Amino acid sequence: MSLQTGLQLWKTSSDDEDINRAWGNIKENIKTSATESLGLHKLKQHKPWFDEECLGFLDQRKQAKMQGVKDSSQSNADNLNNVRRAAGRHLSYKKKKYLKAKIEEVETNSMVKNIRDLYRGINDFKMDYQSRTNTVKDKGDLIADPHSILARWRNRNTEIHTAEPLVPEPSAF
Asked: For the segment 24-79, what is each residue's pLDDT rounded down to a tens digit?
């Protein structure tokens, strides 16, 4: 059904029809028309090791968490901990398996002197991890200690900037 057809049906519907039902129909028609004309855009997968099985574990974890929110009994808390542990183990296993295969691929490229793929594989590893630094510059020096950083921010002079310039008070004359 096209968007125009859906809108025509909405215009001709009786006034007694539920507004939520009408909105649901319009929304579905817009989605279907957009999918038919534009197609679906697949997002780039950032974690190649993440598959449907991993998604299933995350769904199980979400369901266990929702059950724990609904009923905060000890059995639900234990179930949530077990599901979390199982999901974490599975995700860790999949990631380690992927990294091991990637390392073996880099080693193979090194052995057969496939330099281009060797450097591409090495760059994949370099790009994955970027260390996070918590430093603040204080009069040209870098401070890394958390307590010193907090002290630096507390002692900082703050200036108040207004959107409009301050107008002097009117004089009596």
From this structure: 888 999 989 888 888 877 766 678 888 889 999 999 999 999 998 888 889 888 99
Question: Which residue range(s) make up the domain with 14?
Answer: 3-38
138 located within any domain: no
Helix (H) or strand (E) holding 173: none
Residues 29 and 57 in one domain: no
* Whether the predicted model's global pTM rises above the 0.85 cut: no
The structure tokens listed for 59 are 């769904």
Determine contact, residues 77/68, Cβ cutoff 8 Å: yes
Q: What residues contact 97, with CB distance under 8 A and at least 6 apart?
A: 49
In a domain? residue 160: no
- 124 Rama class: left (phi>0) / alpha (psi -120 to 50) / beta: alpha
